[in-house]
Design brief:
With 134 residues, this protein is α+β, with helices and mostly antiparallel strands. It has helices spanning 28-31, 40-53, 56-61, and strands at residues 78-90, 97-108, 111-123, 127-133.
Length: 134
């Protein structure tokens, strides 16, 4: 499946998939390239939203070059349901590194599941995802 044809972007007035405000005021500007995430938590939230809407190009663009895969294919059978930020360390506008622990809940083939991860981020020109441990 081509990466760019699977994107299911919400309307600006719809609630953002990350659980924040309206999509147009939350992750929408980030996914649309109109702004960059000011914190590691906001980047992580926008990356969850990118998974939820099928935006692989955004995920690749926000991945640190040292760990970024060459390509990324998202599984369209996964429906991402909710995001819970468990904790964060550093990752503010003036920091260079940040850690965000989260739980992302999903449904696939009628079965519920959860992905738990502690993600590492670095800020050089902007925040980027480095890697995560489950």
């Amino acid at each position: 499946m081509p990466l760019d044809t699977a994107i299911r972007r919400p309307d600006d007035d719809d609630r953002c998939p990350c659980g924040g405000a309206a999509f147009g005021d939350c992750c929408g500007p980030l996914l649309g390239g109109r702004s960059v995430a000011p914190t590691a938590v906001q980047l992580m939230r926008s990356r969850y939203t990118a998974y939820a809407v099928g935006d692989a190009p955004y995920l690749l663009a926000t991945w640190h070059p040292s760990t970024r895969p060459r390509t990324l294919e998202l599984d369209p059978s996964i429906t991402w349901r909710s995001l819970e930020v468990v904790r964060s360390e550093r990752g503010g506008p003036l920091d260079r590194e940040g850690v965000v622990q989260f739980v992302a809940r999903y449904v696939v083939d009628g079965e519920r599941g959860a992905q738990q991860e502690t993600s590492r981020f670095v800020r050089e020109d902007r925040w980027r995802y480095v890697d995560g441990i489950a």
